[in-house]
Amino acid sequence: MNKFALTVENLSKTYSDSKTKKQNKALNELSFNVKQGEVFGLLGPNGAGKTTFLSILGGTVTKTSGKVNVWGFDLDKNPRQVKSSLGIVPQEVNLDAFFSPKKLLELQAGLYGIREKDRITNLILKLVALEDKANAYSRSLSGGMKRRLLIAKAMVHQPPILILDEPTAGVDVELRNNLWDNVKKLNKEGVTIILTTHYLIEAQEMCDRIAIINKGDLVALDTTEKLLDRIKTKKINFKVKNINGNEILKMKNIQFEIRSSNSIVVTYEKNYLNFGEIVNYLNNSGIEIDDISTEDGDLEDVFVQLTKH
Asked: Which helix (H) or strand (E) holds 182?
């Protein structure tokens, strides 16, 4: 078996405007791999091409050119095997209100042609912590439970790859954390996760690697750690004994801001000098430091830099 769960080579999608005859490129020769067993983030602003890409994987949009290989199956040659290798959790909660979770999963398994003796409905309900609600009406479930039921529906045919499209949109913090606990559990069981989200802090905490697309182009692809290393600026808060607000502090490539008699904020480009040089400068200037805290940039800073949003 290929060590990659998903391989995308020069994938393009062009839409034709019937009125202007203009060609609009939604995807422009995307190329990347998703490793087996990883949590992979696919990020981008609205209109970046994420939905088009997921629709191509799901078989509802036809690509213009390029190759897609899912779990060893070519999208053009083996579309049915590709579909069976994927479990797609949509943004919208689309559940029949009058079916129980167990009935919904049984029905979904039947649509996939899974024989009754081969179904793992009870195991999936346990995996997403819904075994106690197995026979309750879906309409009686909380928002978080409905989200987990969508994941359960996507898992009935035991796909090796689970795609989560904005899974926590409109979900409160407690339910979001609960949902991620379930996703982590699935990942530990060996399921490869592909995640799209607008909550960048989620991607930062959950993903092993992240791809950022903008206007159909791949603008970044790296580990989360290395993407964060791209942030050039660093901010340090110094709590000091006492400093005159009129005192002038100067160092090359450093910005000092005296916020109060006990607070100095320093912003600098970390590639030009190290933290120790700033501390030495303040000490040599007769400023007594009581405490130090840093504000590292996060994935949102990287996202803004790369997409200009």
From this structure: helix 173-188
> Among 2.60.40, 3.40.720, 3.30.70, 1.10.3470, what is the CATH number of 233-307?
3.30.70
Report the C-alpha gap between 38 and 193 in whole angstroms.
6
Pick from 44, 50, 40, 154: nearest CA to 93: 154
Report the DSSP pairing between strands 65-70 and 4-16: antiparallel
4-228: CATH topology: Rossmann fold (3.40.50)
Per-10-residue mean pLDDT of the chain, 309 residues long, equals: 87 86 89 96 89 92 95 95 92 84 93 90 88 89 86 92 85 78 89 89 89 91 83 81 83 86 84 79 89 75 73
pTM of the predicted structure, to 2 decimals: 0.76
Residues 166-176, buried b or exposed e (16+ Cβ, 10 A)? bbbeebeeebb
Q: State the number of CA atoms in the 13 A half-sphere of 64 facing the CB.
A: 15
